[in-house]
């Protein structure tokens, strides 16, 4: 919801760029994602999908397989219900359409080119450029794939169709791992972009 000046509000009152519900959902999501990723790495190490690829224990969470599973299962509810809330609010308020669309491959390539030349304007912090739109929609979809592939691994007997859609139990683990790796890549780029435009961090903390 981009702030529309309210009746009676002072014309130069600061505009809300990120409504409170977006900020709350964003930070809860960041906590859940970090907990799930660190504990997931410990679970992975107990039985690596890719022989020879293990994650250094020092950067994992949970201490041992049982502990990591408890962290993973606890954080998954936060990730799931928070994602549901964020998605529902974005759809109900119309923010999904106004903030992330329209979007086209041409616009993404154009804005990417401008960004690489250092010409992309950040003058209007209430608008996402096409690359941001694409990146944020991509990560939403990626988290959905993580949740669905996670469900296929967790309840593979109860959800045989889901498991087979993923190509079987072992492929579901590969899908889950690849989606995690893409999410990790997003986080690295996301943090670099925030560091380049620190003003955006303020809007994600105090709303304007
Ligand atoms: C760890 C997983 C994270 C994910 C999956 C994630 C995802 C997202 C998404 C989808 C948005 C767009 C939200 C919307 O407008 O509805 C966003 C915005 C933003 N995120 Fe994150 N985020 C993560 C972590 C972080 C962290 C750790 C920081 C800061 C250190 C951060 C800073 C921001 C900022 C400042 C914005 C607004 C950017 C802008 O105005 O362009 N995010 N993030």
Characterization of this structure:
- The protein is mainly α and 208 residues long.
- Helices cover 68% and strands 0% of the residues.
- It has 2 domains: 18-49 and 60-100; 101-208.
- It is globular.
- Residues 1-9 have low confidence and may be disordered.
- The structure holds protoporphyrin IX containing FE (HEM).
- Residues 22, 26, 29-30, 33-34, 99, 132, 136, 139, 187, 190-191, 194, 200-201, 203-204 line the site of protoporphyrin IX containing FE (HEM).
Secondary structure topology:
Blueprint: H1 20-46, H2 65-93, H3 95-100, H4 105-116, H5 130-154, H6 160-165, H7 169-196, H8 199-206
Helix pairs in contact: 1-2, 5-7
Protoporphyrin IX containing FE binds at residues 22, 26, 29-30, 33-34, 99, 132, 136, 139, 187, 190-191, 194, 200-201, 203-204.
Structural class call reads mainly alpha
Tally of individual helices: 8
Question: Roughly what is the average pLDDT, rounded to an integer?
Answer: 93
Shape: globular
Radius of gyration: 19 Å
In short:
This is Cytochrome b/b6 domain-containing protein. This protein is mainly alpha-helical and 208 residues long. The chain contains eight helices and no strands.
Give descriptors for this structure.
disordered N terminus, binds protoporphyrin IX containing FE, 0% strand, iron, 8 helices, globular, 208 residues, Ni-dep_Hydgase_cyt-B, mainly alpha
């Amino acid at each position: 919801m981009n702030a529309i000046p309210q009746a009676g509000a002072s014309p130069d009152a600061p505009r809300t760029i990120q409504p409170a519900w977006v900020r709350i959902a964003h930070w809860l999501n960041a906590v859940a994602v970090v907990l799930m990723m660190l504990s997931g790495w410990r679970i992975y190490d107990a039985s690596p999908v890719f022989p020879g690829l293990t994650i250094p224990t020092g950067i994992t969470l949970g201490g041992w397989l049982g502990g990591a599973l408890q962290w993973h299962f606890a954080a998954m509810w936060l990730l799931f219900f928070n994602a549901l809330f964020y998605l529902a609010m974005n759809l109900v308020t119309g923010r999904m359409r106004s903030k992330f669309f329209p979007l086209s491959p041409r616009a993404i390539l154009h804005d990417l080119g401008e960004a690489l030349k250092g010409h992309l304007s950040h003058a209007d912090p209430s608008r996402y450029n096409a690359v941001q739109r694409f990146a944020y929609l991509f990560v939403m979809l990626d988290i959905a794939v993580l949740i669905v592939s996670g469900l296929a691994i967790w309840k593979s007997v109860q959800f045989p169709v889901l498991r087979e859609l993923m190509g079987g139990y072992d492929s579901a683990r590969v899908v889950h791992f690849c989606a995690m790796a893409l999410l990790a890549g997003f986080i690295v780029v996301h943090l670099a972009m925030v560091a380049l435009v620190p003003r955006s961090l303020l809007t994600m903390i105090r709303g304007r």
